[in-house]
Amino acid sequence: MIDHSLVKRFRQEVGDRLAHQRRLDQANGLPAMTGEDERQFARALISQVLEEHARSEIGLGRTPPTVEEEEALAAGIHAALFGVGRLQPLLDDTEVENIDINGCDRVFVSYADGQEIMHDPVADSDDELTELIQILAAYSGLSSRPFDTANPQLDLRLPDGSRLSAVMDVTVRPAVSIRRARLGKVFMSDLIGNGTLSPDVGKFLSAAIAARKNIMIAGSTNAGKTTLLRALANEIQPSERLITVERALELGLDQFPELHPNVVAFEQRLPNSEGQGEISMAELVRRSLRMNPSRVIVGEVLGDEIVTMLNAMTQGNDGSLSTIHANSSMEVFNRISTYALQAGERLPIDATHMLIAGAIDFVVFIEKRNDYHVGGTLRRYVSSVREVNGCDGRVLSSEVFAPGPDGTALPHAPVSCLEELAAHGYHPGGW
């Protein structure tokens, strides 16, 4: 196991020395180093820093790193310094939304305006592509994640916040999908400005957060669920203690201490090659309840953790947030029931519906549509907000915001908790 704190510390030291050399070269009128020269110089600096560390350990009477440990540390520092190789320019492009790689030379890039183009190869061979992903898997997230024949699936968060999903050996060639986190620090005003939310829905959701309502965000893949979740989370007061639970770190609320100074981010841990050491999402949700949370935020519900999360919402952790894949706001209840049947508790549908009615206050559905008739513009917008009203054999709900003529959510029915929301500044224009 590699000490990630050492990788982080040495990456900072090497980065500082590299920056110092750049400043010296500039002061002396020397040309800037090329990318390859900089990498070679960084390798020399990494060796220098590791040698200094070994001498320090010996001087303190401790055992220095072995040759294998030094090699692993060097690889980790280099990976942390230089990101993701030839993928880096794409990750640096703020207009790139998604990157799909079907083998090293079949690279498709989707842009924010809806365009999709084929890009240059990101590696010279599939083996090189696999090696790059393996390095990222070893040094991204809270723990090393294997990516090999025995572990052919991988999910992780890249240093810039993007989400990477990769598979090998179950496809003819290694396949990678990267979903960009273009809006890391996002607010409700940003989503109102770009048309994701109407001003009325924005005020409604802000009041719902302040009133500590439990909210489930639903939508299809890449609809913008996580971005909306971040914006809602940024409505939470800085004084509150947040616990986030995710399969792979993505939300990054702890990256902005000025907004959320008291955050603990949990990440699912996969089993090792012997099948040991796994910590599941359900276990992490249970653990989060013992960590004095003001609110629990589950990044994405995909399985048996749903029962634990719903129980958490009914045990005093009001104001919790989560996302789920669904085709409509109404379909969310069936999706949750399906996940609950897969859980160890094996809850029957009636019991699950009672649990949903006691746990969830609102379901927000966000939609993605490519409007080909207006030049292929990609739109993301909240089209429905559904309030959970109770249970009578099934979940009773009302659509308080429903799709308008252009699909964007408009007021549709009264909210039963209007007085609570009004106390936090929400005053609808009237129905």
What would you say this structure looks like, in words?
This is CpaF family protein. Residues 88-355 form the Bacterial type II secretion system protein E domain. InterPro entries: P-loop_NTPase, T2SS/T4SS_dom, T4SS_GSP_E_ATPase. The protein is an alpha/beta fold. The protein has three domains: 1-82, no CATH class; 84-182, 2-Layer Sandwich (Beta-Lactamase); 188-422, 3-Layer(aba) Sandwich (Rossmann fold). The protein is built from 13 helices and 15 strands. The protein has helices at residues 4-27, 35-59, 67-82, 88-92, 126-139, 188-193, 199-210, 225-233, 281-288, 305-313, 331-342, 349-359, 418-422, and strands at 96-102, 107-111, 116-119, 153-157, 163-167, 175-179, 215-219, 242-246, 263-267, 295-301, 321-325, 362-371, 377-391, 395-403, 409-411. The chain has a nine-stranded mixed beta sheet, sandwiched between helices. A six-stranded antiparallel beta sheet has the order 3-2-1-6-5-4. Strand 2 (107-111) and strand 3 (116-119) form a beta hairpin. Helix 2 packs across helix 3 (67-82), helix 10 crosses helix 12 and helix 11 crosses helix 12. It is globular, with a radius of gyration of 24 Å. The protein starts with a helix and ends in a 9-residue tail after the last helix. The model has no long low-confidence stretch (mean pLDDT 86).
